[in-house]
């Protein structure tokens, strides 16, 4: 399962969804977590719906999206596209989050949260 993090430094989840220019992608399975790459998103145009759609399209392969903040319209759009959205405080570190990735992955499947 692919998970996206809105971050400026690959460590902290510190970006607002609408201002994030990069999302760091990790592949998570029941026994591993591996950095997969970076999705870059351009913030061009005046239309908010177009900017939201550009971000959603770039994250289409991801099951979860972690952000520091997100506006209502963007959150609604992600949920409508069946993403699992998690807003976390800046002090949550990616490194800490993935120390227990196996348990995290199993919990997601147990609750039916992971995309097939």
List keywords for this structure.
five-stranded mixed beta sheet, 116 residues
Question: What report would you give on this structure?
Answer:
The protein has helices at 48-58, 72-80, 94-97, 101-110; strands spanning 2-6, 22-28, 33-40, 62-67, 84-87. A 5-stranded mixed beta sheet has the order 3-2-1-4-5. The mean pLDDT is 76. Helices cover 29% and strands 26% of the residues. The chain is globular. α1 crosses α2. A hairpin with a 4-residue loop joins β2 (22-28) and β3 (33-40). The chain is α/β, with parallel strands linked by helices. It has 4 helices and 5 strands; from the N terminus they run βββαβαβαα.
Task: Briefly summarize what is shown.
α1 packs across α2 (72-80). The N and C termini lie close together (8 Å). This protein has four helices and five strands.
Number of helices: 4
String of helices and strands? EEEHEHEHH
The radius of gyration is 13 Å
Please list the strands of the largest sheet in the order they lie side by side.
3-2-1-4-5
Shape: globular
Largest sheet: 5 strands, mixed
Quote the beta fraction.
25-35%
Total count of strands: 5
Mean pLDDT: 76
User: Percent helix among the residues?
Assistant: 25-40%
Ranges where pLDDT stays below 50 over 5 or more residues in a row are: none
């Amino acid at each position: 399962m692919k998970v996206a993090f809105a971050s400026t430094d690959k460590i902290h989840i510190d970006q607002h969804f609408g201002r994030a220019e990069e999302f760091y992608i990790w592949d998570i399975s029941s026994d591993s977590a591996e950095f997969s790459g970076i999705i870059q998103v351009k913030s061009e145009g005046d239309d908010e719906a177009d900017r939201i759609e550009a971000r959603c399209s770039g994250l289409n392969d991801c099951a979860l999206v972690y952000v520091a903040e997100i506006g209502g319209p963007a959150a609604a759009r992600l949920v409508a596209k069946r993403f699992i959205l998690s807003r976390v405080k800046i002090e949550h570190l990616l490194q800490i989050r993935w120390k227990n990735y196996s348990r995290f992955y199993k919990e997601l499947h147990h609750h039916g949260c992971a995309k097939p």
